[in-house]
Design goal:
By secondary structure, the chain is of the alpha/beta class. The chain is built from 9 helices and 10 strands. It binds S-adenosyl-L-homocysteine. S-adenosyl-L-homocysteine binds next to helix 5 and strand 10.
Amino acid sequence: MSNSITSVFFIGAGPGDPELITVKGMKAIQQADIVIYAGSLVSEKILGYAKEGVEIHNSASMNLEETTKVIIDGVKAGKAVARVHTGDPSLYGAILEQIAPLEKAGISYEIIPGVSSAFASAAYLKAELTLPEVSQTVIFTRVEGRTPVPEKERLSELAKHRATICIFLSVGMIDKVVAELLQGYPEDTPVAVVERASWPDERAITGTLKDIARKVKDAGIKRQAMIIVGDVLKSAVSGQRSAVRAKSKLYDKEFGHEYRK
Ligand code: SAH
């Protein structure tokens, strides 16, 4: 750890499977005296890494002032605090507002990254999000709900790039998602919706922009799902991976690089 007096750790717990936390994140939980975790999104099994009898708080029923108080009081009492977030803390984790009061109080902290649900979803689909000659860009975004999205980042604008897009927090607004995507992508563009990636009950619905909204509603998917759209999903959606033609330069036998002349 970078600093021996650091006693607050913001930890990415990964997408659900308790084995998808990093070794460093697991060790920080093992050493913690206080664990604050994000309710239903973090597996109870992650809490199983904590020491016997530690103080555990579910942040789902707490506000920012309350979680901050638990952290600051804990540090003042000489305790180590693990603040456990789902996926990677830097994506829709609201960590900055939690860090600000710690900085103000002169409390040092460390952030331990995690496996985002975007990557667990890609793994479940056995998809490569950056396929040569198809797309070399991945956008992480969401549609506007109660949290506003800057005008220039409207899904309809982002769709014009026809890159790969991972859409968080939006499956409950699937009709709006599809309507905006159709302003950039053709109707036959492949889409996948992965629900609870890496949890025991994970599942995926695949289709195109034409039929995905109906399929998602028929399947009853309303939350904890990742929407991924883009031509990189063609083989994942059709199931025909052997038909992929574009190859990367990285493993091309005609293409030497630093480690292979
Ligand atoms: N920091 C988290 C995202 C938190 S926002 C991360 O990096 O994954 C919560 C949103 O993440 C959900 O609305 C959903 O879109 C997505 N999500 C979280 N866990 C998921 C999972 N196991 N499978 C699919 N999507 C998930």
